[in-house]
Amino acid sequence: MSAVRDPRPLTGEPVSLDLLNTRWNREGVVQDLLTDTDGLAVWLAGNGLDFPADDTVLRHTLQARDALRSAVDGSLAEGAARVDAVLAHGCVRVTLTDRGPGESAEFDDPSWGPAWLAARDYLKLLSAAPDRIRRCAHDTCILHFFDTSRNGTRRWCSMAACGNRAKASRHYARTKEF
């Protein structure tokens, strides 16, 4: 497990969107947390995923991120086959426990675990509220979030960052006119 601090500006989103958010913009330059297994270790730890941060897990996780990006930023039609290819490496086992119904994930190869869990999470978000899966409205931001606001009108990944930049830009444009 890595003791390195997560450098990303937005964390804590559902695991599928958090995987997408392993790429972000900093001063016009795209950053990528998943360039190596150290970054993978940071992402796994941040999501409470107990899998080894090795090259095989990284390769599968990157495949899932690309598949999710094509579905979220492209279209479901574009991304469906790619997401399904990741989902083909696992399944949900429905069980009855002493606390009632349950389910657990099973993988044909454990190295697909994080990738499969992210793809599965995306399906859950689509089932719950597909219109709440959003990309930040700031034109240079590439982050995603699940809008949990009461009225469903959240526009920014962070009001403190992107929302404030947009407000400042509008203010500057208004004051420049006079």
Give the tags:
178 residues, alpha+beta, two-stranded antiparallel ribbon, two-stranded antiparallel sheet, 6 helices, globular
Description:
The protein is 47% helix and 17% strand. It is of the alpha+beta class. The strands form 3 sheets. It has a two-stranded antiparallel ribbon. Strands 3-4 form a two-stranded antiparallel sheet. Strands 5-6 form a two-stranded antiparallel ribbon. The mean pLDDT is 91.
Helix content: 40-55%
What ranges have pLDDT less than 50 throughout 5 or more consecutive residues?
A: none
Instruction: Give me the strand/helix succession.
Output: HEEHHHEEHEEH
Tell me the strand percentage band. 15-25%
The count of β-strands is 6
Number of helices: 6
| Shape by Cα distribution | globular
Largest sheet strand order: 1-2
Cα distance spanning the termini: 56 Å
- Cα-based radius of gyration, to the nearest Å: 18 Å
SS-derived structural category: alpha+beta
Largest sheet: 2 strands, antiparallel
Mean pLDDT: 91
Topology at a glance:
Elements: H1 15-20, E1 23-26, E2 29-32, H2 37-46, H3 55-74, H4 76-87, E3 90-97, E4 100-107, H5 113-128, E5 133-135, E6 144-146, H6 159-177
Antiparallel strand pairs: 1-2, 3-4, 5-6
Helix pairs in contact: 3-4, 3-5, 4-5
